[in-house]
Design brief:
This protein is about 35% helix and about 20% strand. It has a seven-stranded mixed β-sheet with strand order 15-16-17-14-13-19-20, with helices on both faces. The protein is an alpha/beta fold and about 500 residues long. It folds into two domains: about 270 residues, 3-Layer(aba) Sandwich (Aldehyde Dehydrogenase, Chain A, domain 1), CATH 3.40.605; about 180 residues, 3-Layer(aba) Sandwich (Aldehyde Dehydrogenase, Chain A, domain 2). A hairpin with a 2-residue loop joins β2 and β3.
Length: about 500
């Protein structure tokens, strides 16, 4: 095993210890004896220093031409390519996702760096005719200021990149507070940006826990944008704080995503997509397929194949290239999954496989859990309503497409949904009716691409989107400009008569 890494915060272009001198341990969730590193346990004092540095750097960064800002992001993308394997292995080790998935996580950061680098030359506004003569009208994007970015552990490089890159290309400065479970991946991203030539104070990194570092960042009077990805409970608290000072706020929260399997579906393809959606990243994705609504005509056949495939998944050390599913992130998440297993049993759901922690041998050194499938579930059961964030799936029978759609929409979340069918009419009806921000046809609920908006409806978010051009709206303000060259006072609507 590699020796533990001793890391610091990155504030005003320098790597510094937390003001308190305290640190916390970063533990490998697959091998508890593997101490990955020690990271600063930051407090409000560290946040204060970081936000002040970002505020001071903003004055010059906002005036740096956007194409020049893009060149730095482009260099960062090239460096991420060069370091991809090293970063992916660090990620698999600290987060527990299979190495193949960790590589994909880094690739998302690469893609976002290149995409947003290009937006440095494409921050288009509008020119439009005025309603008065000798008057010119246009719109331009303006940066907002200091952005506080609070990111989760399940995509420890992709999601920070989703937030960092658009914020930077718009001319904002940032303070990044990554999840305490995965500080190394965020550190690696910030180190790349430093090496790519980001100016002092433009990007700041503060490691630590939510109440101690995240909350002061949200509350700080100098942060003008907060972007948060995490639970709906914490997101609600963040929204309440931001409302008081009218900060820009982008929330990406929970999901209870559904795959609809119709009677005419290619069952082999549907099972393959459902297994990937349910158990990829050990079910620890906001887009994970935790509900499968299956037409009664194929319910038994689909269930048997799906359970067989779930049992056959190779589970173990994510650094082993043969492994398909790694551990849960921590003890708390394991206990949450255990609690929902008990809830499902008490509700009368039929446990078809799994339902227990994996033990024996190497499993005893990590938070490993068996892929779990509940059958014959009612749509109202808690295991079919609440986000579990683990390898637990509820199978729900439906009589037809209308009932399947009704079941699919009958949750408080609205992030991602999918349908497997050979009937284009059914596909388009579901596409129109499903109350989710993302919809797939004959594909799983996971697999978003960075050049398309990402986000959900209902209690999944607050209406904003990450990725693509849509992300620029979170990190910029529209300014409307009128240039009157008539040489006289023109009073808009008054002088039209």
């Amino acid at each position: 095993m590699a020796p533990p890494k001793i890391s610091k915060n990155f504030i005003n272009g320098e790597w510094v210890e937390a003001v308190s001198g305290e640190a916390f341990e970063n533990i490998n969730p697959a091998q508890h004896q593997d101490l990955i590193g020690l990271f600063p346990r930051s407090s409000g004092e560290d946040v204060e220093r970081a936000v002040t540095a970002a505020r001071d750097a903003y004055r010059a960064w906002r005036l740096t031409p956007a194409p020049r800002r893009g060149e730095i992001l482009y260099r960062a993308g090239r460096m991420l390519i060069e370091r991809k394997e090293m970063i992916a292995r660090d990620m698999a080790r600290e987060m527990g996702k299979a190495l193949e998935e960790a590589r994909a996580d880094v690739q998302e950061a690469i893609d976002m760096a290149f995409y947003m680098a290009g937006e440095g030359r494409r921050q288009f506004g509008q020119t439009t005719p005025s309603e008065l003569p000798d008057k010119f009208c246009m719109t331009v994007r303006s940066p907002v200021g200091v952005c506080g970015l609070i990111t989760p552990w399940n995509f420890p490089m992709a999601i920070p990149a989703w937030k960092l890159m658009p914020a930077l290309i718009c001319g904002n400065t940032v303070v990044l507070k990554p999840a305490e479970d995965t500080p190394l991946s965020a550190y690696n991203l910030v180190k790349v940006l430093e090496d790519a030539g980001i100016p002092r104070g433009v990007v700041n990194y503060v490691a630590g826990f939510g109440p101690e570092a995240g909350a002061p960042l949200v509350k700080h009077p100098l942060t003008r944008v907060i972007s948060f990805t995490g639970s709906s409970e914490v997101g609600r608290e963040v929204a309440q704080v931001c409302a008081g000072s009218f900060k820009h706020l982008c929330l990406e929260m929970g999901g209870k995503n559904v795959i609809l399997v119709m009677e005419d579906a290619d069952l082999e393809l549907a099972v393959e997509g459902a297994v990937w959606g349910a158990f990829g990243t050990t079910g620890q994705r906001c887009t994970a397929a935790s509900r499968l609504v299956i037409h009664k005509a194929v319910y038994r056949q689909f269930s048997e194949i799906f359970v067989e495939r779930a049992k056959a998944l190779r589970i173990g050390d994510p650094l082993d290239p043969r492994v398909q599913m790694g551990p849960l992130i921590n003890q708390t998440q394991l206990e949450t999954v255990d609690r929902y297993i008990a809830i499902g049993k008490n509700e009368g759901a039929k446990l078809l496989c799994g339902g227990h922690r994996l033990t024996g041998g190497a499993y005893d050194q990590g938070w490993f859990y068996a892929p779990t499938v509940f059958g014959d579930c009612s749509p109202q059961m808690r295991i079919a309503q609440e986000e579990i964030f683990g390898p637990v799936v509820a199978l729900i029978p439906a009589t037809d497409l209308d009932q399947a759609i009704e079941i699919g929409n009958n949750v408080v979340y609205g992030l991602s949904s999918s349908i497997y069918t050979a009937d284009v009419n059914k596909a388009f009806r579901a596409m129109r009716e499903m109350e989710t921000g993302i919809f797939y046809v004959n594909a799983s609920t996971i697999g978003a691409e960075i050049h398309l908006p990402f986000g959900g409806m209902k209690q999944t978010g607050n209406g904003h989107r990450e990725a693509a051009v849509a992300a620029l709206d979170v990190y910029s303000e529209w300014k409307t400009i009128y240039v009157d060259y008539s040489g006289k006072l023109q009073r808009a609507q008054i002088d039209q008569a």
